[in-house]
Amino acid sequence: MVSSSGKTSQSRYLSIFKMPHPRLTREESQEQTRQRLIAAACKQVAERGFASTTVRDIAREAGYTQGAFYSNFQSKEDLLLDLLRQHKAQEAERITGSVATAGQDFGKAFEALEHWARDFGMDASQALLATELQLLAARNPEFGRAYAALMADQRRIYAQLLERLFALAGRTPPVPAEELAGSLMALARSQAIDHALYGAASAGDILIAVLRGLFQPPPA
Fold first, then answer.
1. Residues near 171 by Cβ (< 8 Å), separated by ≥ 6?
2. Cβ atoms 191, 104 nearer than 8 A
3. What angle do CA 86, 89, 93 make, to 5 degrees?
């Protein structure tokens, strides 16, 4: 037997499932579709490779038709460039935001940089996807130009970050900051794939070791 208070609680509980869910706007629905297609493409390209992944594979993985794909992206390359833009913007915002909170304190700024580096390149599927994107950039001139522009933007952001850290430490970069940033990016990509394939040290661990060496005070 259920008491009147029990019935009230039960009716309130059941009413939750009867409440209408807020409807997405057209823009929100389209963005949700785009993000699901991007996530599906990441999975398929990392597992199968770019050449072996079809638009049908991506659409099926995301639960949509090929028509839905072409309503949002012109091609697989177009989708992957959108993915790159999002990823690079989020990554740059995360690292610059973390370091900015340290103000003028070099120790706190470097600690924030180390915290970011620890998570870098830990996901094997991301490392494989990054390799596929590099190969596509080397083989497809149009994609390659867009890829190079995005990487150049990221290199400049990291160069500015390095310049700030060197200034806080009262040091001078051993080479131009943009060249140093590009070398660190290349090292991280290479180490990430070695970590994914052979279980080598993570890209984050190697980055931290190199950065500590760069900012370590010279021997007296």
1. 215
2. no
3. 140
Q: 98 phi and psi, to 5 degrees?
A: -65, -45
> pLDDT per residue over 35-89, tens digit each?
999 999 999 999 999 999 999 999 999 999 999 999 999 999 999 999 999 988 8
CATH code at 76-215: 1.10.357
Other Cβ atoms closer than 10 A to 186 = 11
Cα dihedral across residues 200, 201, 207, 213: positive or negative: negative
CA 210 to chain centre: 22
Whole-model pTM: value is 0.81
| Multiple choice CATH, 26-73, 1.20.1300.10, 1.10.10.60, 1.10.260.40, 3.30.70.120 | 1.10.10.60
DSSP assigned state of 52: T
DSSP letter at 75 equals S
